[in-house]
Amino acid sequence: MQIAIVLFDGFTALDAVGPFQALSPLPGAETVFVAEQAGPVGDDTGSLTLVARKSFAEVTRPDILVVPGGPDVPVHDEALLDWLRTVDAATTWTTSVCTGSLLLAAAGLLKGREATSHWLALDAIREYGVTPTGQRVVFDGKYVTGAGVSAGIDMGLTLAGKIAGDEHAQGVQLMIEYDPQPPYDAGSPAKAPSVLVEKFRAEVPASS
Amino acid sequence: MQIAIVLFDGFTALDAVGPFQALSPLPGAETVFVAEQAGPVGDDTGSLTLVARKSFAEVTRPDILVVPGGPDVPVHDEALLDWLRTVDAATTWTTSVCTGSLLLAAAGLLKGREATSHWLALDAIREYGVTPTGQRVVFDGKYVTGAGVSAGIDMGLTLAGKIAGDEHAQGVQLMIEYDPQPPYDAGSPAKAPSVLVEKFRAEVPASS
User: Fold this and answer.
1) Which structural domain range is residue B83 located in?
2) How far, rounded to the nearest angstrom, does the alpha carbon of residue A131 sit from its chain's CA centroid?
3) Residue B106 domain-assigned?
């Protein structure tokens, strides 16, 4: 079983590393970070660099595809969109975290489906013919989308349970000690102080 | 303000990336990944490579030090322990995630203090004269330790709030949409099925 996590300039690190940590212990799984060209790929902060071990040309039939997001995902990158369409044709599961769902949508893979995204991108994904839901993890057929950034951990554990059973996924949760205790209850627009929600909404271009 | 996240062969990726995502938005912060030598550093799975942009020699006075853990942290790596001691002398905050606290302890920095670690390493840290607590995030003076792997997100957000205020940290939480909804309630040994807890305990060498 091959898990391919795709990287592109400006990805958000936790979008990729959350599901990586949850999915890579799957029995018999080989995880590969892949980008158009193999080599270092920088994140959205400019401080973190992950290495893509393989190029698009070298990864053609992953069983599980994971697409992270970022604040400005390359929805017009035809090489990336072509590769997503090509490998999706044979995946067992095609997944995304955060605005990674905008890339799947831009590739035409989510048309007519339910999906989620970062809370600031739920309007944008609707423009691709996708019905956004308010859930943190959305399954629609083989397409599994997670909400913003940290939701990739929940998405990965949920998918790990579907694939390898509850006990496997609970073991992963225990080993990553995922017993979350956030110091605030501000992790969604419904719960955060409205002044913050409005501030971030004002910073997002209407067309993004 | 410089945040230094130290890397070594076999680190656990989410240990480093969780606090990175929570702390790097601090106002005026520059985050640097550092290792004994600059260059690629492989994680504990062998599948993920992060790049250390700077060497120990180039990072001598970080304000915040973050030490990730891993399943087999190099507690006898004198170059690493020396660097931890050197930079700790001038940090404002010295932090760890998971078994990163074993490295701080091995460097002699936690002696007589309260700290935490991965749940499987709480006995091991006691051998360094440290008092382990059952909390997910432990503050003792400027030393801040988080429990296993995913606890680095809680540690990072808690510290971000102490440094830059609740509203800043709540904004970070909202942007990483950290509204955790794990599919199971198995994230600590007190909650997970006992068969899993016993299985993992049996796999840990008594001396680790």
Assistant:
1) 2-180
2) 17
3) yes
Q: How many domains does chain B have?
A: 1
Which residue does chain B place closest to A170, by CA atoms?
B186
Interface of A with B in 117-156 (CB under 8 A): 118-119, 136-137, 147-151, 153-154
- A96 touches B: beta carbon within 8 Å: no
Q: At what angle do helices A151-164 and A13-23 cross, to 10 degrees?
A: 20
Give residue-wise pLDDT tens across range A123-159. Answer: 999 999 999 998 999 999 999 999 999 999 999 999 9
- Cβ separation of B180 and A177 shorter than 8 Å? no
ipTM for the predicted complex: 0.96
For the sheet with B54-55, list strands across it.
B54-55, B30-35, B2-6, B64-67, B93-97, B143-146, B137-140
Closest approach of B60 to chain A, Cα-based (Å): 18
A143: CATH: 3.40.50.880
What is the number of CB-based contacts under 8 A between chain A and chain B?
220
pLDDT of residue B205: 64
Question: Within 13 Å, how many C-alpha atoms sit on residue B114's CB side?
Answer: 9
* Structural domain includes residue A188: no
A114 forms beta bridges with A131
Question: Which pLDDT does position A205 carry in this prediction?
Answer: 63
pLDDT digits (tens, 9 = 90+) for B104-123: 999 999 999 999 999 999 99
pTM score, whole prediction: 0.97
Q: How far apart are CA A67 and CA A95, in angstroms?
A: 6
Q: Both tokens of residue B203? A: 């796999």
Instruction: Kindly determine whether residue A184 and residue B176, on different chains, have CB atoms separated by under 8 Å.
Output: no
